[in-house]
Amino acid sequence: MSAQREMKEKNPWPVTIIIIVIGVIVIVALVTVAVLQNMPLSQKYKYGIVLDAGSSHTALYIYEWPAEKDNNTGRVQQTHVCKVQGPGISSYASEPWKAGESLMACMQEAQQRVPGKRHLETPLYLGATAGMRLLNMENSSASDAVFRAVERSLHTFPFNFQGARILSGQEEGAFGWVTVNYLADRLEQGLETTGALDLGGASTQISFVSSNYDGSESPSNSVTFRLYGNNYNLYTNSFLCYGKDQAMKLLLAQQTLLAPKTIVDPCFHPGYSEAVSYSGLYDSPCVSNRKPQGAPEAFNHTGSGNFLQCQDVVKSIFNFTYCKYSHCSFNGVFQPLLQGHFGAFSAYYFVMDFLNLTDTSIPLTKVKEVISSYCATPWDEVKRQHPGVKVKYLAEYCFAGAYILTLLTEGYNFTSDSYTQIEFIKKIKGSDAGWTLGYMLNLTNMIPAEAPDSPPLPYAGYVSFVTVMAVLLFVLVIVSTRRFWLRCSKRPQIV
Ligand SMILES: O=c1[nH]cnc2c1ncn2[C@@H]1O[C@H](COP(=O)(O)OP(=O)(O)O)[C@@H](O)[C@H]1O
Ligand SMILES: [Ca+2]
């Protein structure tokens, strides 16, 4: 009996097993608590809504980001876009209430998409660009009435409406640049930035950082940012009237000066023929001062589809001769030397995508051949080849291709080498390239001036560290316990 008890007392295993079980429980508990305590909270999202009231149309963008990560980069993304039916809000100058009405369907969609409990805190912005800039120049009371109408509509929704306003050309260019670089994660990582080229209907923007530009030569083209601890001195310029729709008006106005009744336009397909009213052509401040005296009601717009002649006419709407700075783009506007990569979006993308020319490794000579052959295709054949494409766009792609090429090479001075640095883009990581995201990030202070403090270890590293340390500690306890019991069992028994 006493020998058995002795055996039991000397055998360390039952105690060791108990220690192992407790140890395993402690480690599991420790790691679980550490993981749960530090785990990112279940993905709750916050939302922001921006309405891009462009000259040709309005689009509503919904952005979302994880609720607890307001200050981190690369996390805000577009979850939905809704295209407003009908034209841009500036087209409703004579019946402003319709501008407000036109936004209702997309706003109702936004109300469905953003979870109800987030409605009140979700900021809602409307930014208008060159269409409203032009209307405001031409008739400021009409533009005020349009804004009142859209504000009335937007106030009827339960979002946190922050107002509707016209963006300056500088803001439009700069926020497009912020969007492109934010989405490509170039800002937080302090990488060399990408330039932004935006072609709208009524204006066009170019924005880039150039190491030989400090902002002093033409201060009005300079925008400075401090983002994630880095300073950026951005060159940006917006050319009002040089969006593709207004540029076409400039082109038509130019041609009607020579032939007021019928113009044979080399930028339109052979066989194309359309009656155009003078009042429609001259309704914009971009061309209104050029209206010929005693012009008829309408003129006949026909096409000849000659790319080389088209390029010549397109060039005539630019002034390449006057420049009071060290370098200019066109119309006497300062531009530093081009530098780095560029993302070209909006109409740049639509047009080059249609022409199958988004690949910029295609040499410029080949690009010209492709556009030239499209221009020379008879209008009937073009319509037959592209039955699903809006006829208005179809008719304009020849002009638009020639315009883009002239703007980039003669206007901004891209060479056959630097042209390869352009990427025609629509989206970056699922979000549309354009000024709206940058605008929202700025207004919600979502890009900090200084780099946010980051924990010394990333989350995964932290969890692994805690686990390894706990296991090590446990092994140590087991080893010492076993050694202790073994020593006890070897000690001579005193009888
Ligand atoms: O599918 C398309 N094909 C060709 N052009 C398009 C397409 N979708 C939009 N666009 C053009 O893109 C431009 C967008 O300009 P927007 O309305 O943003 O003007 P803004 O930025 O000057 O105010 C317009 O010229 C419009 O016609
Ligand atoms: Ca635009």
Give the CATH architecture of the domain at 244-424.
Answer: 2-Layer Sandwich
In this entry the ligands are:
inosine-5'-diphosphate, calcium ion
The level of helicity is 40-55%
Mean pLDDT: 91
C-alpha-based Rg, rounded: 33 Å
- Which fold does the CATH topology of the domain at 244-424 refer to? Nucleotidyltransferase, domain 5
Shape: elongated
Report the structural category. alpha/beta
Task: Compute the number of strand runs.
Answer: 16
The termini sit apart by 15 Å
Helix tally equals 16
Stretches with pLDDT under 50, minimum 5 residues: none
The description of the largest β-sheet is: 6 strands, mixed
Strand order of the largest sheet: 8-9-7-6-13-14
Task: Break the fold down into its secondary structure elements and pairings.
Elements: H1 2-10, H2 13-38, E1 45-53, E2 58-66, E3 77-83, H3 97-102, H4 104-113, E4 123-128, H5 130-138, H6 140-155, E5 160-166, H7 169-183, E6 195-199, E7 203-208, E8 222-227, E9 230-240, H8 244-258, E10 262-265, E11 273-277, H9 278-281, E12 298-303, H10 307-315, E13 342-346, H11 347-354, H12 364-376, H13 379-385, H14 391-411, E14 422-424, E15 427-428, E16 431-432, H15 435-443, H16 459-490
Helix pairs in contact: 2-16, 5-6, 7-15, 10-14, 11-14, 12-14
Bound molecules: inosine-5'-diphosphate and calcium ion (CA).
The site of calcium ion has 4 residues, from loops.
What this model shows, in words?
The chain crosses the membrane at residues 12-36, 459-481. It is a multi-pass membrane protein. With 495 residues, this protein is of the alpha/beta class. Among the domains are: 2-39 and 459-490; 244-424, Exopolyphosphatase. Domain 2 (Nucleotidyltransferase, domain 5, 2-Layer Sandwich). The protein contains 16 helices and 16 strands. The protein has helices at 2-10, 13-38, 97-102, 104-113, 130-138, 140-155, 169-183, 244-258, 278-281, 307-315, 347-354, 364-376, 379-385, 391-411, 435-443, 459-490; strands at 45-53, 58-66, 77-83, 123-128, 160-166, 195-199, 203-208, 222-227, 230-240, 262-265, 273-277, 298-303, 342-346, 422-424, 427-428, 431-432. Strands 8-9-7-6-13-14 form a six-stranded mixed sheet. A five-stranded mixed sheet has the order 3-2-1-4-5, sandwiched between helices. A hairpin with a 2-residue loop joins strand 8 (222-227) and strand 9 (230-240). Helix 7 packs across helix 15 (435-443). The radius of gyration is 33 Å and the shape is elongated. The mean pLDDT is 91. The structure holds inosine-5'-diphosphate and calcium ion. The site of inosine-5'-diphosphate (IDP) has 20 residues, from helix 5, helix 8 and helix 11.
